Amino acid sequence: MWRRQKPSKSRHPEGGVILVYLIVFLGAGIGGVFRHAVNMGAARLLGFGFPYGTLTVNVVGSIVMGLLTEYFVFRSGLPQELRLFLTTGLLGGFTTFSTFSLDAVTLWERGQWGIAAGYVALSLVLSMAGLFVGLMLIRLTGQGHAA
């Protein structure tokens, strides 16, 4: 499945590390624009009563992450910079859920079912709890309002 490489200074000499960050930055910007377009399109077509756009980008992003990871990244010999642009950048900007899904499935496929289930549960519960904490902190200052 997903094989993360340790960063190597020798792999990106003389400013190459900066270029890698710029590549990821560019991909994330493009992915974010795509996410916004899907969110707006879904809202116009289906209404605002349910987060159809978010659901769509999460599912589509996870499918594309699976496709890229299994086929392009490991079978085509793409340069590391292009892999980072497509996965960490483009899909990371489109949806961070695709990376979450990849990490959970990687644990599952390694036979670490308990850790995978714990990761999924903790990610969902702690992320939602973190959002509530952020909401409450702003509301306590009198700067916010009930959602």
Tell me the layout of helices and strands:
Layout: H1 16-46, H2 52-75, H3 80-94, H4 97-109, H5 113-140
Helix pairs in contact: 1-2, 1-3, 2-3, 2-4, 4-5
In words, what does this structure look like?
- The protein has 147 residues and is mainly α.
- The chain folds into 2 domains: 1-95; 111-147.
- It contains 5 helices and no strands.
Helix content: over 70%
* Unreliable spans: none
Q: What is the gyration radius calculated from CA atoms? A: 18 Å
Morphology call: globular
| Helix-strand topology string | HHHHH
Q: Give the total of beta strands.
A: 0
Structural class: mainly alpha
The DSSP helix count reads 5
β-sheet strand percentage: under 5%
Major pleated sheet: none
Cα-to-Cα separation, first versus last residue: 40 Å
Write down the domain tally. Answer: 2
Mean pLDDT: 85
